[in-house]
Structure formats: C-alpha cells, structure tokens
Design a protein that fits this description.
With 232 residues, the chain is an alpha/beta fold. The protein has eight helices and eleven strands. α4 packs parallel to α8.
C-alpha cells in the first residue's frame, strides 16, 4: 500500500475509483468533510502529530489515505487521445504535479514519463496535482525515445518547447494529434530526444528575461496548441 494526503487528492481518489482505498485517517476537525464521501472505507481520527509522523509531512491538510499503488497505464491506452504530454527528465514533484493538473484540466491529455531520472507519481506529486493524477491516464515507459516513435506511428506530431526553438508557438501548424515534449528543469530536452521532435517551438518573451518555469511553459503550450485553436 501507498499513502496519499490532502483533501483534494483523497476526495479525487474516492471519486475516480481507480485505487483500492484501505483506510482514511483524518484530524478530528476534518472528519465531517470526509465521512460522507468515504462510503464503506474505514475512517479513523488521529492527532495532528500522529498524521505528521505517518505522512512524513506537515502539508497533509488533516487527511491521509492508505491506497493501492498508482495505476499506470500502457502507452497503447494513450494513442486515441488528441493530446499527449511527454515529460523528459522533470524531477521536481511540484512541477510534475502541476503539469499533470494542467494537462488533464485543459486538454484531457495523456501523460508519458520515463522510469529513470524523472519524478514518479509519489504522494507529493499527487498533492501538487490536486488529485488530477487520480483521473489522468499516465504511462510510465522505459525509453521515451521509443515512446515518441510509437506515438508518431499513431498519427502524433511531436512538438518540443525550448527557449531557443526556431518557431514561435503561435506559428505551429494545427495538427490533429500533438505530443508536447517538455524538458528537465536544468537540462531541457535531451539531445537524443531532440531527434524525435518534429518541430521545436518557443514561447515569445519580452524584456531581458527569456525563460519560464517548466510548468508555466506547459500551461501556455497546452492552451495555445490544444485549447485556443479548438475554441476558434
């Protein structure tokens, strides 16, 4: 079993039904918030100190759940999506969670993460996503480059975001299926993966500051490529 913590993550896990939930532990003042949604899941009250010790964090918002391991999906389950997001070497759980929240909320996008040198779906990522992980389809792959090749076979165009990309994001053609690739916080998209990118784009900036946090870039990229064009 694993744990997840925070009101939204636990509530979304209950709503999605994708994980077995063994038990919910809550502070006394949060009991009424969760008991109605818990159904047949046992709920016990603990002190804040006990919750801190069990979750190893102070940011649990008074609610923790014991759950089955995260249900990653096979890459093949993402090929019918219109939008997929590829996370290359993004190691900060806050960034990973924020991107998943945006990708699911804006575009119902599938997510692909590599097994190595990347944040996995940990309690911190679940919390940062506000529980979006419990609904989004997330594939974990051994080789991100091979995943790109498989997506291309299924009609996806791979669009990379890079501050030095030659094409402004507003000029990216309106492809039917896109896979947006985002690189690591410090290294960007790795050289080997750049070879799989069909088009490298940048987000135009003004002033002397020319870069954004990767989760901010993901939000702008997804809105531009998947939301604004659909609305128009």
């Amino acid at each position: 079993m694993e744990i997840i913590y925070g009101k939204n993550p636990v509530m979304e896990a209950l709503l999605s039904g994708r994980r077995d939930i063994q038990e919910i532990m809550t502070a006394r003042q949060c009991y009424d918030d969760i008991i109605g949604a818990a159904g047949k899941v046992p709920v016990q009250t603990l002190s804040r100190k006990e919750l801190d010790k069990f979750s190893k964090t102070e940011y649990h918002q008074g609610i923790i759940a014991k759950v089955s391991p995260y249900p990653y999906v096979a890459l093949a389950e993402l090929v019918d999506k219109r939008v997929v997001v590829l996370l290359d070497s993004i190691e900060d759980p806050q960034n990973t969670g924020s991107i998943i929240r945006t990708a699911y909320g804006l575009a119902d996008a599938g997510i692909v993460i590599p097994e190595d040198r990347a944040a996995q779906i940990t309690p911190a990522v679940v919390k940062a996503s506000a529980g979006a992980t419990e609904h989004a389809l997330i594939a974990r792959v051994k080789n991100l480059r091979m995943a790109c090749k498989e997506l291309k076979k299924n009609g996806f165009w791979i669009i990379g975001l890079n501050a030095q990309g030659p094409v402004p994001i507003s000029e990216v053609p309106a492809y039917d299926k896109i896979a947006l690739m985002l690189g690591g916080e410090n290294s960007g998209i790795r050289h080997g993966l750049e070879k799989e990118v069909d088009l490298m784009a940048h987000i135009p900036m003004t002033g002397s500051f020319n870069s954004l946090n990767v989760s901010q870039s993901a939000t702008i990229g997804l809105y531009e490529l998947a939301v604004r064009r659909t609305a128009s």
